[in-house]
Structures are given as C-alpha cells and as structure tokens.
Amino acid sequence: MAGRRTDTRERIQRVALDLFVEQGYEKTSLREIAEKLGVTKAALYYHFRTKEDIVHSLIEDIGVSLDEIVEWARQQDDPVRAREEVLRRISGLIQGRFGPIMRFMQDNQPALKELHAGHVLAKRMKELFRFMGADESDPVAQLRARLALVALMVGNNPQFLDENPTAASADVALRVALELASPRPGAGT
Amino acid sequence: MAGRRTDTRERIQRVALDLFVEQGYEKTSLREIAEKLGVTKAALYYHFRTKEDIVHSLIEDIGVSLDEIVEWARQQDDPVRAREEVLRRISGLIQGRFGPIMRFMQDNQPALKELHAGHVLAKRMKELFRFMGADESDPVAQLRARLALVALMVGNNPQFLDENPTAASADVALRVALELASPRPGAGT
DNA sequence: GTCTATACTAAGATAGAC
DNA sequence: GTCTATCTTAGTATAGAC
Question: I need a labelling partner for B59 at 20 to 30 A (CA). Which of A80, A154, A184, B16 fits?
C-alpha cells in the first residue's frame, strides 16, 4: 500500500498461504513461516501486526469479489439465470488466483470463525448458499441448488479427487454445478 | 472396558465432543474440558493418556463402521445398487449416534490429519469417494457420483443449511444423494 | 479415582540494537 | 528492514499426595 518495497511482504503472503493450505492455519507457526523464508519471527512482525493480520491480507480481495457477486445476484429478477451466472463467476474465481485461498477457507473454518475477517467471510458464503436455494420451495430442490455451489468447491479440493485440481476438474465441476442448479424437466412439485 | 465405573470417562467424551464440534479441535484445550466438567486437567489424564487419545476413543467406532461399509461395497458386483446401499448406510450412521462425530470429522481434517487415528479415517473416506466414482468413465458422471456422498455430509452440517440438521434434513439429503448416484436416463456417454 | 503442584515446551508478541 | 533477546501466556503432560 505505501512506498518502500522489497517484496518481502508478498513473499510472506505466498509462503504463509502455502503452509496454511498444506497443514492448516493453527498448525502453522510464525516460526515456521520465518524459517522457510530465511528470516526471523521479528521480521514478520515488521510487515504484519499479528498472525491474524496475515490471514486478513490473504482473504481481503476475495471477500470483495464475493461481496460483488452477492450484490449482483440480489438485483437480478430471473432466478434461474442468476444462479447460473453466480456459479460461473465463482468458478472463475476458483480458476483464477483464488483457488488456493478458497481451499484454505473450506478446510479451516473452525480457525477462521475466530478471526474477524474470517467471520465476515463465512457470513458472505452463508448468504450465497441461502441465495442459491432461495427460490425453491421444495426442500429437495433447495438442497440440490445449494449443492451446486458445493460442487465447485469439491472440484477444487484434492481431498475428494484422485489427483490435484486442474483446469479440467474445475470445468467438470462447473458442468455438474450448472446441471444441479437448472430446473428439473420432469420433476415433481 | 474394565470394572470400576463412575462414568467420568463417558462424561469426558461427551463434553469433549461437544466442544470439539462447537469450536474446533485445536481451539479446545484440556483446561476448558476439565473446567466444564468440574474436574482438573490431571483428572482427564487419569482416564486418557493424551488429548489425541480422547479423539481416538471418539472416532474408533465410526472407523469400524466405515470399514465394514467399504469392505461390503467392494464385494458387490452390481455397482449401481452397491452405491445406493452405501449411501443408505452412511445416512444411517449420520442419523444414528455418529452425526456429531461426522460433522467433527468434516470440519477438522487439518487437525485430524496430524493424528494417527484421523489419518486412518481420512484414508477410509478417500476409499469411499473413490468407490463411489469407480464405475464411471465420464468425469462428469464420476463427480456427480462422488457428490452424492458429499450431499449426505452437507445435509448434516448447519454451515450449509438454514437451521440445525434434523431427521428431515437427513432424509432430504439422502433423496438428493440417491438421485445423484443413480444413472441418468437420457444422458450421454 | 481424583486433586495440587509443577515441569516443560512452544506459541504469539515486543523492545531495542544494528 | 532485520536481528537478538526476552516476555507472557497457554498448552500438554507428570509426580506424588490424598
């Protein structure tokens, strides 16, 4: 944000995100991050006030993006098309630079819940889930619509796949998601 | 297992599981568990050798159940029916006494991965996911089949719902799961 | 079977030198 | 901007009395 610059701040963010994704937020100590960077803990504290601050800087941008999507979705009046477009946009975020962060969010909610920034983010996600099912009165259809969003996350998480996520797996996930979100041709209610 | 009996051991398990589900494994300290029980930390150590041991005792039974399901599934030769039955059985576990434990597992994999018992459990789950998609050559159909399993977990997790999980939401989840796992009538490949 | 007291470790964080 | 040194707090775990 300011003027100085030696890219250390960004290196910290990169290394921290790697470790957070790999072994979880709580299991990752500042000592570990510092060692991997070849600096001391104190150096980290020059760039970030707290450990929480590092996370905050990591999820800041995606928070804004999600917010925009939620806002946009609210203003649409064709719910089916809106849902589809939401899925496409979220998929775009995942395939863009936010894939690892999304995985981090998904795997570490207990930790994130305790952090202010994480709490806000969780609320956004909850709004998104609510939006996805909002126009369905049938509970089955509602869960199906919400599951569409989950599909995108599953397609981005090696825990559920045979291999690491790729552009291909993200694409497959989007297909499944759109299918789930679209109205059933011959279904009940 | 032995003879003495003052049910303290079971009370520890109950309180620990409550706190683990509520605030996560890492965030829950032994001091906290002890306080809520009205005993001291040392008392916990009489009943369990370590914190990890408490978790181990909690997930022991469900590990056996999952193992049985995986074994059974392997021996079937009608893949469609086998998948359906797997879903029904998992749903049964969730609706039975394992609901909270399942949620705990789902929310705390980064922590569980580090524990031996959790690591074993994660492998079982991975085998289940692989089994669900094993007979599908089309990647889309494969992800759909795996998502069936996820649907059951989503139906058991308030994070994705409007309210706390109930028998009704579990039933809805099972419907959606079975639908996802059954072959498409008019689909490609 | 449970408690008091305490050891040990590692975490996050700060002060002040360079 | 990074270091050394240190503080504080909290965690898991143990020894030994009751």
Answer: A154
- Distance in angstroms (rounded) separating the CA atoms of residues A172 and B181: 16
Query: How far does A5 lie from chain B, in Å, by closest CA?
Result: 34
Q: What Å distances lie between residue A145 and A92, A148, A184, B151, CA to CA?
A: 18, 5, 11, 11
Return the CATH number of the domain spanning residue range B1-48: 1.10.10.60
> Residue B99 and residue A103: Cα distance in Å, rounded?
24
Question: What's this model's pTM, rounded to 2 decimal places?
Answer: 0.94
Q: Which residues in range 111-130 of chain A are in contact with strand C, contact meaning CB within 7 A of any of its atoms?
A: none
CA distance B110 to B112: 6
Q: How far is A127 from chain B (nearest CA, A)?
A: 10
Q: Which two three-digit tokens encode residue A73?
A: 């979705």
Rounded to the nearest 10 degrees, the angle between the axes of helix A99-107 and helix A79-95 is 100
Full pLDDT tens readout for chain B, 189 residues: 433 447 899 999 999 999 999 999 999 999 999 999 999 999 999 999 999 999 999 999 999 999 999 999 999 999 999 999 999 999 999 999 999 999 999 999 999 999 999 999 999 999 999 999 999 999 999 999 999 999 999 999 999 999 999 999 999 999 999 999 998 875 544
Report the pLDDT averaged over residues A162-173: 97
**Cα(A129)–Cα(A127) distance, integer angstroms:** 5
Separation CA B23–CA A81 (nearest Å): 37
A2 touches strand D (CB under 7 A): no
Domain boundaries, chain B: 1-48, 59-181
Q: Establish if A60 touches chain B: CB-CB under 8 angstroms.
A: no
Question: From residue A142, how far is each of A72, A133, A175, B86, B175 by CA, in Å?
Answer: 20, 5, 18, 23, 12
Q: Distance between CA atoms of B14 and B36, rounded to whole angstroms? A: 11
DSSP label of B160? G
Distance of A51 CA from D13 C1′ (whole Å): 27
Rounded Cα distance, B58 and B52, in Å? 10
